[in-house]
Automatic annotation (TrEMBL):
CDD domains: HATPase_MutL-MLH-PMS-like, MutL_Trans
Matching NCBIfam families: mutl (TIGR00585)
Annotated ranges, domain DNA mismatch repair protein S5: 209-327
Residues spanning the membrane: none
Gene name, Swiss-Prot/TrEMBL: mutL
Protein name, per record: DNA mismatch repair protein MutL
C-alpha cells in the first residue's frame, strides 16, 4: 500500500504557524517591537498605515544582522536567543521561539534592511509569502528596519476577519503602550497615517507612564517599592479616589514583559480593600522582577500569561507592599465615605445574573404631595428594587425603600407645598397621578383646571413651588428621564419591543457594519430585534417601545458617531454609552413646543428619576429660585 503521509512544505507550515502568531496587525507590531528591544536598540520608531493593515514598519538602531543572519532570520525556528532547552529557564529576551519573522513573511509582503555597527554595508531583503524576491547589498545606517505590507494578502479569509480600523488601531495602541511602558529607557516614536501619536524620550517609569497616559496621571500615582529575595516590585498604583469604572489602565510586567494575571490582580484589589467605591477599578503600573528560573512563560503562544513557582508568596508580597504604599502616602483619609449618595453614579448593576430583580413602580405615588411620601415608598419597598447597590455583584439587591434617604433632597423642595398655606396664588399644586414609566407624550387630553407649569422660550419649564419656583431645562430633563429608562431596561427589566409590519433595511459602510455587529447584543437589550445581517445592511424587525420607526435610523447614526472612537470594553460602560447616545438623539429638543400635559409629564418624570439634578452629560437639569431671591431683586 502506498504511503499517504507527507512532510508539509515550509511555506505551508509557516502559513499554518502564522495563524497562531499573527492574528492581526497588532501582533506584527508586538513581534517587531520586541525584536528591536532584544537587539538592544535605544531608539525605536513604529510607523503604521491604516491601523497596520497596509503597513507596519519598525526601525531600530540596535545590533543589526550579518548577511547570513539576515537571510536566516526568516527560517522557522531560527533564533539567536536560545541554544538549548535549559536556556528557557534563564531567558532575558522577549523572543525565543524563532517563529515570528517566518510566520509574518509567510502572510505578507516584507522588506528588511539591516546593518551591524562594525560593517560598512548592510543587507536589503524583499520576501513575499515566504518567497525571497531579492537580496542586495546596500548602504544603510546601523540597525534594522522591517516593513510589513499587505498583511494576509494571500489569506483573504483572515483579511476579511479583521475589524474596523478603529478597533485594529486600538489593538496596535495597546501593544505599543505595553512595550513602551516596559522599557522607559528606550526612546519610542509612533506614527499613524503620517501623524505623530507618541514621542517618548528615554526616561524613568513615572515619566513614561505620564507620557503615555496623560499629564493628569502624575498627581494620581503613588509609588510602590519592595525588594525581597524572590521578587522585586516597583511601579505605581493610583490613589483610590481616582479609581475608574473600567479596567483600562492596569498593567503588570514581569521581567519587562507585559502579562495578564487574574491572581495578581486579585492581590492588588485586596490591597485596596475598603478604599474603593463598589465596582471601581484602580489603575496600576507594576513592574515585577523575578529570577528567570522561577517562571515559565512558555505556556501561551502569545505569551501574555505566565506561571510562577511560588504564586502565593508573590500574592502576599504584592498585596502588602501596595497596602503599605497606600497607607504611607496617606491616601485613605482623602476618601469621603459620607458623601451624598445622590452624587454617586446612579446605576450599578454589575454581573446581573440569576434571577432578574423586578422593579415595582408605585402608580399612586405622587412626588408633589407631602405627607404620604414615605408610606408610598415603603409600600414599594416590599418588592425587590433596583436602587440598592449590590457591591459584590452577587445578585442580592437591597430594597427599594433604601431610596428614601437619597431622594429626600429634592422632595424637600416641595414639602409643605399643599399644607394650605394661602401664600401661593396659583392654587393647589397637584400633579396627575400616573406611572412614572409611562410615555411622556401620550396624547390623552387631560383637562386641567389650573395651569401649574409654563413653558418659556420653548426651552424652559417654569413651575411654582413652596419656596419659590423651579426652572427646568426641557432638553436636559428629558435626556435624564430617557437615559434612566434605557439603562433600567438594559440592566434590569426585560425591554419590550414593538414588532414592525415591514422590516427596516438600513445600509451602512463595512466599518459601520462591524461596529453595529459588536453593538447588537446591547442594542437587543433595549428592545431592538435584528434579523440576519447582510454584508452591507442590517434588517430590523423590532424596535424599542419608546421610539418610533422614523427615529430608528437617527438613533443608529448617533450611536455610530458617538462610538467612533471604539466601543467601551466593559458591559457597564457599553450600556451607559448606548443609553446616553439614545437619550441624546431621542430627547425633546430646545425649540420644541410642549403642551401642558407634556410639561407636567416632563417635570413629574424628572423628579421621579434617581438622579434628577444632572443630565446624563453632567449638566444641571433644573434650578430653583427662592421667593427671597426674587424679593431681593425687587428691593434694589
Ligand atoms: P525570536 O525573536 O523568537 O528569536 P524572530 O523570528 O522574531 O524570533 O527573530 C529571529 C531572529 O532574527 C532573532 O533571534 C534575531 O537574531 C534576529 N532579529 C530579528 N529582528 C531583529 C532586529 N530588529 N535586530 C537584530 N536582529 C533581529
Ligand atoms: Mg522575535
Amino acid at each position: 500500500m502506498s504511503s499517504i503521509i507527507q512532510l508539509l512544505p515550509d511555506h505551508v507550515a509557516n502559513q499554518i504557524a502564522a495563524g497562531e502568531v499573527v492574528q492581526r496587525p497588532a501582533s506584527v507590531v508586538k513581534e517587531l517591537l520586541e525584536n528591536a528591544v532584544d537587539a538592544k536598540a535605544t531608539d525605536i520608531k513604529l510607523i503604521i498605515k491604516d491601523a497596520g493593515k497596509s503597513l507596519v514598519q519598525v526601525i531600530d538602531n540596535g545590533a543589526g544582522m550579518s548577511v547570513t543572519d539576515a537571510r536566516l532570520c526568516f527560517a522557522r525556528h531560527a533564533t539567536s536567543k536560545i541554544r538549548q532547552a535549559e536556556d528557557l529557564f534563564s531567558l532575558h529576551t522577549k523572543g525565543f521561539r524563532g517563529e515570528a519573522l517566518a510566520s509574518i513573511a509567510a502572510i505578507a509582503h516584507m522588506e528588511m534592511k539591516t546593518k551591524q555597527d562594525q560593517e560598512e554595508l548592510g543587507t536589503h531583503i524583499v520576501i513575499e509569502g515566504s518567497k525571497f524576491i531579492s537580496q542586495e547589498v546596500a548602504v544603510l545606517p546601523k540597525g534594522t528596519s522591517f516593513a510589513v505590507k499587505n498583511l494576509f494578502f494571500n489569506i483573504p479569509a483572515r483579511r476579511n476577519f479583521l475589524k474596523s480600523d478603529t478597533v485594529e488601531f486600538r489593538h496596535v495602541m495597546d501593544e505599543f503602550q505595553r512595550v513602551a511602558l516596559a522599557h522607559p529607557n528606550i526612546h519610542f516614536t509612533f506614527y499613524h497615517n503620517g501623524s505623530e501619536m507618541y514621542n517618548l524620550p528615554a526616561a524613568g517609569y513615572r515619566q513614561r507612564i505620564v507620557g503615555i497616559m496623560s499629564g493628569k496621571t502624575n498627581e494620581k500615582l503613588v509609588p510602590v517599592n519592595e525588594e525581597t529575595e524572590i521578587i522585586n516590585v516597583q511601579g505605581f498604583v493610583c490613589k483610590p479616589e481616582f479609581a475608574k469604572k473600567n479596567r483600562g489602565e492596569q498593567f503588570f510586567f514581569v521581567n519587562d514583559r507585559f502579562i495578564k494575571s487574574g491572581y495578581l490582580h486579585h492581590a492588588v484589589m485586596a490591597a485596596y480593600d475598603g478604599l474603593l467605591k463598589d465596582g471601581s477599578q484602580p489603575s496600576y503600573f507594576l513592574f515585577l522582577q523575578v529570577p528567570p528560573n522561577t517562571i515559565d512563560i512558555n505556556i501561551h503562544p502569545t505569551k501574555t500569561e505566565i506561571k510562577f513557582d511560588d504564586e502565593q508568596a508573590l500574592y502576599a508580597i504584592l498585596r502588602a507592599s501596595i497596602k503599605h504604599s497606600l497607607g504611607q502616602f496617606n491616601v485613605a483619609p482623602v476618601l469621603d465615605f459620607d458623601r451624598d449618595a445622590n452624587l454617586d453614579t446612579p446605576y450599578h448593576y454589575k454581573d446581573l445574573e440569576g434571577e432578574t430583580p423586578t422593579i415595582q413602580v408605585d402608580g399612586t405615588f405622587n412626588p408633589f404631595t407631602d405627607d404620604k411620601t414615605n408610606q408610598h415608598y415603603s409600600k414599594s419597598g416590599s418588592g425587590s428594587g433596583y436602587a440598592g447597590s449590590s457591591g459584590s455583584g452577587s445578585g442580592s439587591y437591597s430594597g427599594y425603600s433604601k431610596r428614601v434617604e437619597p431622594t429626600a433632597s429634592w422632595e424637600s423642595l416641595y414639602v409643605g407645598l399643599e399644607t394650605e398655606t394661602e401664600s401661593i396664588e396659583s392654587a393647589p399644586f397637584t400633579f396627575e397621578n400616573e406611572e412614572v414609566t409611562s410615555s411622556l407624550f401620550n396624547d390623552e387630553d387631560v383637562e386641567q383646571a389650573i395651569q401649574k407649569t409654563y413653558q418659556i422660550h420653548k426651552k424652559y419649564i417654569v413651575s411654582p413651588i413652596k419656596s419659590g419656583m423651579v426652572i427646568v431645562d426641557q432638553q436636559r430633563a428629558h435626556q435624564r428621564i430617557l437615559y434612566e429608562q434605557f439603562l433600567l431596561n438594559m440592566t434590569v427589566n426585560q425591554a419590550s419591543s414593538q414588532q414592525l409590519l415591514f422590516p427596516l433595511n438600513l445600509f451602512y459602510s463595512s466599518d459601520e457594519m462591524t461596529l453595529i455587529e459588536e453593538l447588537k447584543p446591547s442594542l437587543e437589550t433595549t428592545g431592538f430585534v435584528f434579523d440576519e445581517a447582510q454584508t452591507d445592511h442590517i434588517v430590523i424587525s423590532g424596535i424599542p417601545v419608546n421610539i418610533t420607526e422614523s427615529e430608528v435610523s437617527m438613533v443608529i447614526e448617533q450611536l455610530l458617531s458617538d462610538l467612533q472612537d471604539g466601543i467601551p470594553a466593559s458591559s457597564y460602560s457599553q450600556n451607559d454609552t448606548i443609553a446616553k447616545s439614545m437619550a441624546k438623539s431621542l430627547a425633546v429638543k430646545t425649540g420644541s413646543y410642549l403642551t401642558e400635559k407634556e410639561q407636567d409629564n416632563l417635570v413629574n418624570g424628572l423628579f421621579a428619576c434617581k438622579d434628577p439634578n444632572i443630565s446624563p452629560f453632567q449638566k444641571p437639569t433644573f434650578i430653583t429660585m427662592r421667593v427671597e431671591d426674587i424679593d431681593k431683586k425687587f428691593a434694589l
